[in-house]
Write a structure and sequence with these properties.
about 170 residues, mainly alpha, binds zinc ion
């Protein structure tokens, strides 16, 4: 007998159903949130993984956007898409993520964006909990790239926010 599974309303990952806490505004299943918690623990436990940690946080956030009438959720999607653009298209170092987010919140340029129905093929489960940091980093970049691509209809809007923010290298 197998346990009943359910699809996460955010990223679509199929996991055995659990009851448990959920994030206050990111929309996802309790099982997905718990599994992501294990990934975060692996990240926080390894300084080499923390060098690209922001990619993990950004990818998860944009795959689990909250309601567009929730100010916190709008800010979350905005700043996580903006850092994904900087890391993936401008070559910015993910280690700079938290200072970039602070500057984005101080000077907000984002507005609500309609979330895409499809959020990518990879989920948090594509990032190994252990193993060589280089391989884990590659997996995190692949997941982040997939999550960013899912928002392609809004890429030009996000690029515009980045241009106005002055946060791009040389920008
Ligand atoms: Zn999920």
């Amino acid at each position: 007998m197998s346990l009943p599974t359910a699809g996460c309303p955010g990223c679509g990952v199929e996991l055995p159903e659990v009851t448990g806490p959920a994030h206050p505004y990111l929309l996802g299943s309790a099982a997905c949130w718990a599994g992501y918690g294990d990934l975060l623990a692996a990240q926080y436990g390894d300084p080499q993984r923390m060098a690209f940690h922001q990619l993990v946080v950004d990818a998860y956030a944009v795959q689990h956007p909250g309601r567009s009438d929730d100010r916190r959720a709008v800010q979350s999607v905005g700043i996580h898409l903006m850092t994904l653009q900087l890391f993936l298209e401008e070559g910015v170092d993910p280690a700079l993520g938290s200072s970039l987010h602070r500057r984005m919140v101080e000077r907000p340029l984002f507005r609500p964006l309609a979330a895409p129905a499809a959020r990518g093929h990879r989920t948090f489960r594509s990032v190994p909990l252990s193993g060589a940091p280089g391989e884990v980093r590659s997996a995190a970049f692949a997941w982040a790239g997939d999550a960013w691509a899912a928002w392609s209809v809004h890429h030009d809007v996000v690029r515009g926010w980045i241009r106005r923010s002055g946060l791009a290298p040389g920008g």
